[in-house]
Amino acid sequence: MKITKVETVYDGFYKLRKLTVQDGDQQLTRERFEPGRAVAALVYDTNKQEYVFVRQFRIGAEQEVEEIAAGMLDKGHESPEEALRREIEEELGYAEVDHLEHIVTIFPSPGGNAETIGIYYAEVSQQSGAGGGVASENENITLLRLSRAEMDAREWRDAKTLIAVQWARLNKK
Fold first, then answer.
1. Residue 20 belongs to what domain range?
2. What CATH number is attached to the domain comprising 50?
3. Same domain for 21 and 41?
4. pLDDT for 33-58, tens place per residue?
5. What is the pTM of this model?
6. C-alpha angle 53/110/16, rounded to 5°?
7. Do residue 27 and residue 84 come from a single domain?
8. Which residues are annotated as a binding site for Mg(2+)?
C-alpha cells in the first residue's frame, strides 16, 4: 500500500486528513484523525509512597476518567521529557521530577488515528503546588493518590494507564 495524496479536511483543535491510498490496482480513500504527539507518566511520590493519578472529564468517554498525568507536546521544539515535566507540574503540582524513565511509545488506535503516546515512569518527592490543571486550558483535574495495593486492586479503563500500571506491577516490586 502507498499513500498517493493527503488533503486536510479539518484543521481545528485537532486535524482530520483525507488520504488516497493505492493498493495494487485499487485506489482507496481513508480518513485519519491527527491529535498530535502526547506524553503520559505514572507518577510515584517517594516521600508519601503513593502513586498520583488524575480524575478528569474526557469528551471521548463522556465521563470522568481516572488516568495517569498526560498532555500534548506543544508545537515547536519541546521534547517529550520537557512536555512531561510541564504536565506533571500543571496537573499534579510537582515542579521537580527526581527520576524519569521511558517505558514505551504506543499508537493507541492506529487504524485511523495518527496519535502517539510516550509513556513514562516518574518519581517525585516535593509537591510545590496544588496541581489541578491550567484554568486557561479549561482543565478541571482532581488528584487521586493511591497506595500500591489500591492501584493494583483498581480496574483501569484508560489504555495508557493500564499499560503503565501493568509495567509497574512487573518492574516495581
1. 2-32
2. 3.90.79.10
3. no
4. 999 899 999 999 999 999 999 999 99
5. 0.91
6. 95
7. no
8. 70, 87, 91, 139
